Amino acid sequence: MIPHEENRACALMKVGLFVKPQHEAIQKADAFERWLAARQIPVVRKQGTPSNRKIALNSREYAPRDLFCVFVLGGDGTFLSAARWIGDAPIPIIGVKFGEVGFLAETVEDGLFSAAETILKKEFTTMARMRLLVRVLREGEEIVREPVLNDIVINKGALARLARIKTYINDRYLTTFRADGLIVATPTGSTGYSLAAGGPIIHPTVPGIVITPICPFTLTNRPIIMPDSVCIELRLDKSASDIMLTFDGQAGLEITEKDTIIVRKGCQPIQMITLPDRHYFDVLKTKLRWSGERI
Q1: Of residues 76, 151, 180, 259, which has the active-site annotation?
Q2: Could you read off the pLDDT of 145-199 as tens digits, one per residue?
Q3: Is the CA virtual torsion 188, 104, 77, 272 positive or negative?
Q4: pLDDT tens across 266-279, in order?
Q5: Which among 232, 243, 251, 81 has a CA at the least distance from the CA of 166?
Q6: In whole angstroms, what is the distance from residue 44 CA to residue 29 CA?
Q7: Which stretches within the chain are classed as H helix?
Q8: What angle do CA 108, 114, 117 make, to 5 degrees?
Q9: What is the Cα–Cα distance from 1 to 65, expressed in whole angstroms?
Q10: Angle, nearest 10°, between helix axes 23-38 and 112-120?
Q11: 171 to each of 52, 136, 145, 175, how far by Cα in Å?
Q12: E-assigned strand segments in the chain
């Protein structure tokens, strides 16, 4: 393709830029935006929420559906915020690591421009990452409907007693978890809080949902992997108090025995960009420092 035709093709693209509110990330975003402008590529830029602030569940702003792709400059928390911003639109998304771990990042800060060159040439593939659809019913009325990429967490307050969480699978009673809390995670989320709580690592293409109790009172209450076709229903015991439900660690809701939490596979996965020569197991062993590897 000759240069002026390449510029004309790029001008038909519109790129999303989701940026962590951190000095280094903002500086890099400014430089990247100038780089895109030189190629006549319009940018829709959004700044993430500081990590010490929770997002209100009812305040929702969505990305334009005609974006060619979204670049996320930040850590995993910023990526999860960007996934909420995309909503159910099939927009490819790529993470550029500025955080500490970055399981969701496909490249690092120094690789941003070379990755962008590859993406703008459309020399990439995408991997569909399952999301959960989480509904909260309060006395039978739906008060929350949220897509979740990583996990939902039911967590008790610091001074609260053990949470008692009645768990049903496809309307059949499974057990009542007596624990500090409960995590319901996707394969993508299996390397997050669920892993820290003793849950298994699940490859992103495995069609499953993992339920992981947090510090269970009964040692035989172990993490369990369910097929992604199930409907999970969670209810609190009547004596429960000071219990929070969080969505991807981004937004939260206080819940009581009046609430029923319904979790099932969502209809719209996130389309995560994968670059050539980037392999899941290489990333996994590096992030977890297996065999002496470092981040």
Answers
A1: 76
A2: 999 999 999 998 876 778 899 999 999 999 999 999 999 999 999 999 999 999 9
A3: negative
A4: 999 999 999 887 77
A5: 232
A6: 12
A7: 3-11, 23-38, 76-86, 112-120, 193-196, 280-287
A8: 130
A9: 28
A10: 40
A11: 37, 16, 20, 12
A12: 15-19, 43-47, 69-74, 93-97, 107-108, 125-129, 132-138, 141-148, 151-156, 163-169, 172-179, 181-185, 208-214, 224-227, 232-236, 243-247, 251-255, 259-265, 270-274
Q: Contact 104/95 with Cβ under 8 angstroms?
A: yes
Active-site residue 76, yes or no?
yes
What sections of 106-250 are H helices per DSSP?
112-120, 193-196
User: CA–CA separation, 225 vs 179, rounded Å?
Assistant: 18
Query: pLDDT at position 10, please?
Result: 55
Q: Please tell me the pTM assigned to this model.
A: 0.89
- Judged on CB neighbours under 10 Å (0-12, 13-18, 19+), 211 is buried
For the record, the structure tokens of 73 come out as 């400059």
Amino acid at site 207: P
What's the full length of the chain, in residues? 295
Among 33, 36, 54, CA closest to 45: 33
Residue 105's identity, in one-letter code, is A
Burial of 52 (0-12, 13-18, 19+ CB in 10 A): exposed
